[in-house]
Amino acid sequence: MLLTLIVLLPLAGFLANGLLGNRLGKPFVTVVGCGLPIVAFGLAVKSFLDLLAGGGAPIVETAFTWARIDGYAFDIAFWFDRLSAVMVLIVTGVGSLIHVYSTGYMKEDKSYARFFAYLNLFLFFMLLLVLGRSLLVLFVGWEGVGLASYLLIGFWFEEADNARAGKKAFVTNRIGDAGFLLGMFLLYWATGTLEMDRINAAFTGPVAPAVSASLVGILLFIGATGKSAQIPLHVWLPDAMAGPTPVSALIHAATMVTAGVYLVARMSGVYAQAEAASQVVAMVGVATAFFAATIAVVQTDIKKVLAYSTISQLGLMFVALGVGAYSVAIFHVYTHAFFKACLFLGAGSVIHALSGEQDVRRMGGLARKIPVTFVTFVVATAAIAGIPPLAGFFSKDEILWFAFASSRGGAPWLWAVASATALLTSFYMFRLVWLTFLGKSRMEPEVEHHVHESPWSMTGVLAVLAALSAVGGFLSLPHFLEPMLPLPRVPEHLHHFETPLLVGSILIAFAGLAGAAYFFGNGAARATRVRERFGGLHRLLAGKYFIDELYERMLGRPLTWISEHVFLRTGDRMLFDGTLHGLAGLARRTAGVFSRVQTGNLHLYAFLVVAGMAISLAWSFRHG
Amino acid sequence: MIDTILANLDTALLYVFALSALVGAVLMLVLRHPMQVAMALISTMVFLGGIYGLLGVHFIAAFQVLIYVSAVMVFMVYVIMLLDVRDASFTHRFSGWMLPGAAVGMLLLAALGYGLLLGVDRVASATPSFGLAEFAAAFLSEYWFQFELTSVLLVVAVVAALAVIKGSRGRDRG
Amino acid sequence: MDRLQILLLLAMALFTLGLAGVIVRRNLLVMLMCMELMLNGVNLSLVAFAQQTGTMAGAVLVFLIFVVAAAEIAIAIPIVLVLVRQRRTLDADAYTDLNG
Asked: Which of C20, C24, C96 sits opposite A599 (nearest CB)?
């Protein structure tokens, strides 16, 4: 009952806020919209304690049977084990914090109720995703979060660009979902069930199912690529920054984009048997991580930097998944949720303070003016850079170690690229700190005059998240998840590399910090000179490697051409309209021919009557 | 010869009346003036009345003359006299469909004749008594509904005629 | 060829002549009179059959046909009058407005 309640509370919030919110006013929306997720979090904690009391045995709750086909029942069931516990706590915990933040950030917005309705809807679907026992329920949640993401990205839909960004996110996701569906079909066909625990058991059991684990693995990974913004379906995430900042924090940093990571981790039974698929996952992950980090170095919009940073960090999580260290990837999901949410919300606080300015070239010198935001932002930046003893250090270091040493695909080159990514991460994050908060002010005078610290609803949440980013790493998640997601074996001869690599990653973090201080301190003069020297490279990176333009040229234009010429002109106009008009014309012409009998001449009519009468009489007399 | 005729007076008169009716009908088709056509029709009707009388249905014969000749045909004659026009239909009395019309008429007659030749069922003829008393009694007992309907029909006809004339007069005013 | 057959033949001939008359003649009033001729032919056949079978039904129907013919003429003549008042001609070929 408890799990079903956790899932349904946000849904109730959606309905209440959506239907009654505008009528009952902001206080009602605030209480319901924030209160229900907080209650859900409380219930999640309770379930977690129950889980621990039961020694980690999974709690299963079947809500109802959705369909019965061929003797197999498709149940809507919820599954709560260690992995689900971690995910649910992150989703409801960080989610509740972001809901509280939103009460401050969206206070002046006229669609306050709609915002919270959509946020609650998102929470409902995300909980379905992480609590579902079968791939069916997970997929419903998967699609649902995509819908909520679309609604929230295009929240200020009066601007056409925002609506377009929402559409792009949804469509790109759907492309990945095609792979997901194919994987699901294959799994059902091979194992006869869609319940993930049973699928994992089938793949790790004695008899291998009749489908290649790698094939299924790659297909499911395609779905994960769409949802978690990996190459080649990463293009929607930077555009999704058009949505309000709390949305970026919740959906595009902490929870939704980690759904792909969760999926792979959950299907670890399949991936453990799929060597080829795991290699693909690791390679795509590390390529995406490095690629996104290079772009983040030259971005000038504060949110875009964080967006590419998210893509990069997700790539690192997939590296961990690819080398078999599933629990380490989940550990990084957990730490990333804290510091990335803190970073995004901090950026929101900066934007709020500067009355809407998002370009870092027009910021600077904010440290004294908005101190709480500054401090929390720096703490979170240090966390993502991997400076010990903050949370990000622990998780990132584990990833790098297993990238190097895992017996299931770890290799030095993988470690090297990942470390280069870590270096770039530290560099561009501290660059962001310097450009935004330190140095001389480059703000417009009007904006500078109105700079003010954000209200407590926002800064309080920032403080909580910063604290979690600082100390969250001490909770060793891999150890907690060990019983169900064991860490991969490390070959004996590589054990002695552990300490050197640890020291190395610490040095990399500080090197990034130093580099940022060198280039961007003192008015960023050195950075400007470097940019002018390497102009071509800068343009390539600033243009995001022109991938969007490539997609437009390769896919967009041919599809539009086909739609215009084949479907519209030939198919619709010529075939359908032509057929319809042709038939109508045929009917009209035939009727025209027949109507020539009606001359209005009485004699003709009488003649026809007599003729018909004579013929029918003769015929009837002959044939009796 | 006179004796045979007198002996079978019924049949002889029947033949005479039948032939006369037929001649009248044919004349209807060829005469030019509508008044002449009306006269031909009246003669046909009278001879038909004679045939009815020979058959023994005297009241039907009476009604034939009473209703058809003295009501319907008199009305017709009045109208012909009223609308005494000398237009195209007077100078060219046959329509363009004369030949096809004649042909198809003969075709119809042939078909009907063929049907007649196939044989008509003969029922053992009881001696019919077509007295007026039986006729009236039948209308009051078995066919009373049809009788009432005819009165309705006549009312409707009167109303319709009035409506046609009144409506047209309203339109022509002014 | 007994009496019944002769009468029926006559009735058929009258009917056919009336029908042919409607086709052949142009004058509206003459066409109306030919329709009366048709009715007379039918009456004759009914009387012949009634007399032959000995039932009253045929005679009754003849009487009803009289009534109907009277009513029909009562309406048809005013229609012709109205038409003629507008077009001033009794030619059936002039009234072809209901074409197409």
From this structure: C96
**C33·B172 Cβ contact <8 A:** no
Which chain B positions have a beta carbon within 8 Å of A617's beta carbon? 108, 111-112, 115
**What is the distance in angstroms between the Cα of A581 and the nearest Cα belonging to chain C?**
23
State how far residue C58 is from chain B, nearest Cα, in angstroms.
Answer: 11
Are the Cβ atoms of B89 and C91 closer than 8 angstroms?
A: yes
pLDDT computed for residue B84 by the predictor: 77
Q: Can you give the three-state secondary structure of A203-245, one letter per residue?
A: HHCCCCCCCCHHHHHHHHHHHHHHHCCCCCCCCHHHHHHHCCH
So what's the pLDDT on residue A624? 66
Distance in angstroms (rounded) separating the CA atoms of residues C18 and B24: 11
ipTM computed for the complex? 0.92
| pTM of full prediction above 0.80 | no
- What Å distances lie between residue B6 and A125, A204, B1, B11, B56, CA to CA? 116, 127, 8, 10, 18
Distance to chain A for C42, nearest Cα, Å = 16
Q: Are A131 and A3 in contact (CB under 8 A)?
A: yes
Q: Please name the residue of chain A whose CA is at the shortest distance from the CA of residue B102.
A: A607
- Chain segment A203-232, per-residue pLDDT in tens: 888 877 777 888 999 999 999 999 999 988
Non-local CB neighbours of A130 within 8 Å, separated by 6+ positions: A84, A87, A88, A91, A141, A259, A262
The 10s digit of each residue's pLDDT in A355-392 is 888 888 888 888 888 888 999 999 999 999 988 888 88
Under-70 pLDDT residues of chain A: 523, 624
Chain B residue numbers with beta carbons less than 8 Å from the beta carbon of A605 are none
Q: Which residues pair with A76 in a beta bridge?
A: A64
> Mutating which of A593, A598, A603, A610 best tests the C interface, going by the most C Cβ atoms within 10 A?
A603
**Pairing of β A72-80 and β A59-69:** antiparallel
* Residue partners of B84: CB distance under 8 A and separation at least 6: none
For C46-61, letters b (16+ CB in 10 Å) and e give bbbbbbbbeebebbbb
Residue of A601, A603, A623 to mutate, testing the B interface (most B Cβ within 10 Å of its Cβ)? A603
Which chain A residue shows the shortest CA-CA distance from B117?
A621
For residue A299, the Cα-to-chain-centroid distance in whole angstroms is 21
Q: Is the dihedral of CA A194, A195, A199, A202 positive or negative?
A: negative
**Cβ neighbours of A326 (radius 10 Å):** 26
Find chain C residues with C-beta within 8 A of B96's C-beta. 93
pLDDT tens string B143-166: 999 999 999 999 999 999 899 888
